[in-house]
Amino acid sequence: MVRRTGSIHTLIALLAFLLWAPVPAATANTAAPAQRSAADACGVLAPGASAAAERAIAAACAEVAAGTWYTWGGGHGAQPGATYGQVDPTDPDSEHDPERLGFDCSGLVRHAYAKAAGSDILNGVASQQYYTHRAAARFTAAQGLAPLLPGDLLAWGTPQDLHHIALYLGAGKMVEAKESGTRLMVSDVRLNGDYFGAVRVNTGPVTGHIHQTWGTDVWTKAEPSVRAARVYAFPYSTTIRVHCQKHAEPVTAEGYTNDVWSYLPDYKAWVTNIYIKGAAWLDGVPDCRTTPPTP
Q1: Global pTM value
Q2: What pLDDT, on the 0 to 100 scale, is given for residue 168?
Q3: How confident is the model at residue 295, as a pLDDT?
């Protein structure tokens, strides 16, 4: 009888323990499974990437793992890194961006490659990053993903307005700061819509004739003429690579007149030398008659 009573008391005590004991660590770890899943999927997913590209991916994926927010304008402070965002007047979802520390698409790319290179080599918006003078190779939308390597930058938009940029991971995946109201994420590459192409970044020394523009909203042109089709406008002073220069249509602007135009291979476009810092005929840059523009 005593033995039986003891067994009942033991059973009651065991049930009480199970009901009132703290939640085990394994149960507590079930929080935020989606965030952990995205972080686990973020990394170099194909061979062939350079060491610098792998470092850029690691920096971006660290932000995914941290649950960092997309914020409109985020990442564009004096130095690379997360900043508080701004309200995008066209997007109601950006209401809380000024309260969130994070990145927009180009801010994330800037941060990732600053970590990779040890210097701020991709400061600017998506268009400036795609048209960087540090391009090691460029790929069109028609080429798809086949020639790409992890760390390449994917861009969406038009030559006049590239509005989104992301880092390719390989295996059809990318890491991106997509839109307000979301955290940084791993996504399938979107080749439909206005996918524009990709660029491979050279983090080492840059060869060629490197110059600086001045002014705001300075348009490059498809031909060396003010009447030619517009290609891309420099929103502010921009580092450019000049292939050659030649005398063509005279231009009068900003109190200057000059008939010299320079060909910019990264844009496949021309710009009047008025907006390039230096002499009217740039020192050391060859004449296009002896060094024709590349197609």
Answers
A1: 0.84
A2: 98
A3: 65
Whole-number Å distance between alpha carbons of 173 and 5: 63
pLDDT digits (tens, 9 = 90+) for 130-171: 999 999 999 999 999 999 999 999 999 998 899 999 999 999
What is the spatial distance between Cα 108 and Cα 76, in angstroms, rounded to a whole number? 9
CA distance 244 to 129: 22
Edge-to-edge order in the sheet of strand 69-70: 69-70, 101-103, 83-84
Q: How far apart are CA 259 and CA 121, in angstroms?
A: 32
- Integer Cα distance of 97 and 103 in angstroms: 10
CA 288 – CA 295 distance, rounded (Å): 13
Rounded Cα–Cα distance for residues 24 and 3 (Å): 32
221-241 pLDDT tens trace: 999 999 999 999 998 999 999
What is the radius of gyration, based on Cα positions, of the chain?
26
CA distance 9 to 16: 11
Which of the 8 DSSP states describes residue 63?
A: H
Q: Which residue has the tokens 């460029």?
A: 138
